[in-house]
Amino acid sequence: MSLFIIHSSADENLIKNICIQTSDYQYCTNLYFSDNRSYRVGVQGLALIAIQATINKAQDTIYSRFPELSKKITDLVGKQRLGVCKTDYTNSENNFNGAFQSTSKSDYWKAIDWIRKGANDVIDCQDIYKRENPIADSPISDVNNEIALKLSGIILACIDNLLRRS
């Protein structure tokens, strides 16, 4: 016996309406359409799914990417920058946990503050490579952009919708 999950067009329309408000529609729809919970929740649930994806991305970076990079980076400046980034990511993870709690409690203005702080932490990790010589590209620019721009933008689109409804 096979189990099929039937998605209503209203659920897909909700996701599409949120995603059209973001900077990367395809990324947003991929995030939600690949998570079956997305079809069973409203806008608040979609915000929580995106926040959890952000926390997971930060944790993966802390516990997988940074250890890999610390083995490869041997120069003192590179190690110092990586240390700053690890601290930034730990702070970002904590801030997105705060956003999750605030969103769960429908305290959306507080959630916005947490999201701003979490995104700014990741932006600091990106910027540390441009502040002083030698100027370099961050070895985790891809993740920095994913968290600070794409995921944060999705979360804020959801919260904006929730605020307009209240």
From TrEMBL:
Domain Pectinesterase inhibitor: 10-158
Keyword Aminoacyl-tRNA synthetase on entry: no
GO molecular function list: pectinesterase inhibitor activity
Coiled-coil stretches: none
PANTHER family per record: F14J9.2 PROTEIN, PECTINESTERASE INHIBITOR-LIKE
Family that this chain belongs to: Belongs to the PMEI family.
Name of the protein in its database record: Pectinesterase inhibitor domain-containing protein
Species annotation: Acer negundo
